[in-house]
Structures are given as structure tokens and as C-alpha cells.
Amino acid sequence: DEINILQATKKAFAEAYRNALAHCPGDYVCSDVFVDAVKELDIPAVQHSLIHGDALCYSIAAASIVAKVERDRYMIAAAEKFPQYGFEKNVGYGTKQHMDALREFGPCELHRRSFIKKILAERGEC
Fold first, then answer.
1. Shared-domain flag, residues 80 and 126
2. Shared domain check, 115 and 80
3. Which helix (H) or strand (E) holds 48?
4. C-alpha closest to that of 100 among 84, 88, 78
5. CA distances from 13 to 79, 98, 126 (A)
6. Is 58 exposed, middle or buried (0-12, 13-18, 19+ CB in 10 A)?
7. Which candidate, 110, 114, 113, places its Cα nearest to that of 77?
8. Tally of domains in the chain
9. Whole domain around residue 33: which residue ranges?
10. Does residue 11 sit within a domain?
11. Which residues of 79-90 are buried (b: 16+ CB within 10 A; e: fewer)?
12. For residue range 73-103, what is the model confidence (pLDDT) as tens digits?
């Protein structure tokens, strides 16, 4: 919540870019990067921002699948610490069960308060 979702995405992308290059041979250069609808990344490469990039570029599609699998794994692990929210089933999406749990238990440290303002208001927490 400290920065908006777009800025968080850009920050994560730049970090992933640097980490990927750190694992490449010393003379490796990444001259071009393809991304799904994100512009102006803080990286030293030519950036190709494609709307619906996952439908147009195999690399973006593959990255999207990897990201989804990793997110799901993270949320399933989070369900062990926060079982009341049903993360193992909803993987963080705003299902009815998840919203009901938020109303009953309030948010945990994983919830982005910017996305649950209405529920926080109902609970008198904003």
C-alpha cells in the first residue's frame, strides 16, 4: 500500500531484470525487453510494451504462467499462517468467502488496504 500497484510492478520488474542478468555470463547483454502493457521501466534496455502481450508474445505468455503459478504457491503457503481467509482456494481473489472472512476477521498483513476500503469502512477501520 505504500506505493500503488503500477509502481510496485515496475519496481518488481526492474529487480527481476537485475537478478536475471546477475545469473548470466559476464558478457551477456539484454538489449530488448518485452512487457505486457507496462511502460517506462527503470532498466537499461529497449522496452516493447504490448497491450495483451500474453496473446501476442510467447515470452510474455510464459512469464504470465510462471507468475501465476508462483503467486498461487505463495498464497497456498500463506493459508497455513492465515487459514481463516481461505487463501488456498481463492489465492487472494475477492471471492464471496474471502470478503466474508475479511468482514469477520478484518485484514491480515497481506491484504492491501487500498483494495478493501469498503470493508474497512464497514468495520470502522478507516
1. yes
2. yes
3. strand 46-50
4. 84
5. 26, 28, 31
6. exposed
7. 110
8. 2
9. 1-51
10. yes
11. beebeebbbeeb
12. 999 999 999 999 999 999 999 999 999 999 9
